[in-house]
């Protein structure tokens, strides 16, 4: 992934720029790519984050495939790139991702040392909006460990700083996860609490779900995150919607494959990556036309 980022910014310098987001617990760089046609700064911004959870390999792959499309095939997306900038973080949790590749395929968390032989924080329970109020665990050995405080993980703190530094132009925030086949909008902490523009969110989520279903026939559902999934606080989308408050905040849960949903076999990878990208492009076109 790092080699691919280097290649993109080398080959497409008028569109793609590498951004250092921060450093993981074990010292790995967390990197992003800013995509801006002719480096025009003040367009509406779409910020995409992927790879919060280690075992969801299809998530960072989706972010990289999106980069591949909008940068390497930029000429197909002139209308979008004339009107929208992108900031894409393909892998927020590089330590957990490497651990899932080398040691434990089912690993979910980061790799912070918690003591008593326990490691890691569920990064999607560690963000600062209503942190540790519902759906997480205070057990350092649990897969849903919320951390010792909001943003106690360097990975979430780095992403928070990136979000806040780019808040002025932020029009849409997207978290790519796997693999519940859903398009979700805030809030994830509650089945009944919605942003003020819930009608707009619902309409766009429905459009994206329809786009996704048209690709390969997989069924995608759309709705409030806390309604369609078990309510949980400390998510990235709740932090963005609850504090920065751009108009549009979503989680896209990719198509499923393999034994667990997120362990997509290589034979299905291209199909799922293309499918997810079409869903993303529906959101990007909406921003280009409306924001």
From TrEMBL:
GO terms for biological process: proteolysis. Gene3D superfamilies: Zn peptidases (3.40.630.10). Belongs to the peptidase M14 family. The active site is at residue 253. GO terms for cellular component: extracellular space. Residues 1-287 form the Peptidase M14 domain. Its cofactor is Zn(2+). The keyword DNA repair does not apply. The keyword Ribosomal protein does not apply. InterPro entries: Peptidase_M14. It comes from Anopheles gambiae (African malaria mosquito). This is AGAP006210-PA. Signal peptide: none annotated. GO terms for molecular function: metallocarboxypeptidase activity; zinc ion binding. Keywords: Carboxypeptidase, Hydrolase, Metal-binding, Metalloprotease, Protease, Signal, Zinc. The lineage of its organism: Eukaryota, Metazoa, Ecdysozoa, Arthropoda, Hexapoda.
């Amino acid at each position: 992934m790092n080699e691919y980022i280097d290649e993109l910014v080398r080959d497409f310098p008028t569109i793609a720029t590498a951004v250092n987001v921060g450093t993981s617990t074990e010292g790995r760089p967390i990197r992003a790519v800013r995509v801006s046609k002719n480096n025009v700064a003040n367009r509406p911004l779409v910020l995409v984050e992927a790879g919060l959870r280690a075992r969801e390999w299809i998530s960072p792959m989706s972010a990289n495939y999106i980069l591949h499309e909008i940068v390497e095939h930029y000429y197909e997306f002139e209308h979008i790139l004339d009107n929208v900038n992108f900031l894409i973080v393909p892998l927020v949790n590089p330590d957990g991702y490497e651990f899932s590749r080398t040691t434990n395929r089912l690993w979910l968390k980061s790799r912070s040392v918690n003591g008593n032989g326990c490691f890691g924080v569920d990064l999607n329970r560690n963000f600062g909006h209503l942190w540790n109020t519902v759906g997480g665990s205070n057990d350092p050995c649990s897969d849903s460990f919320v951390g010792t405080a909001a943003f106690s993980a360097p990975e979430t703190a780095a992403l928070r700083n990136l979000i806040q530094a780019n808040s002025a132009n932020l029009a849409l925030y997207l978290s790519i996860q796997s693999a519940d086949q859903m398009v979700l909008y805030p809030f994830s902490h509650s089945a009944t609490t919605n942003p003020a523009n819930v009608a707009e969110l619902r309409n766009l989520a429905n459009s994206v779900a329809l786009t996704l279903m048209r690709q390969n026939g997989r069924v995608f559902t759309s709705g409030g995150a806390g309604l369609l999934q078990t309510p949980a606080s400390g998510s990235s989308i709740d932090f963005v919607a609850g504090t920065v408050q751009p108009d549009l905040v979503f989680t896209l849960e990719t198509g499923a494959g393999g034994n667990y949903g997120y362990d997509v076999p290589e034979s299905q990878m291209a199909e799922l990556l293309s499918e997810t990208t079409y869903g993303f492009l529906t959101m990007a076109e909406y921003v280009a036309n409306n924001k």
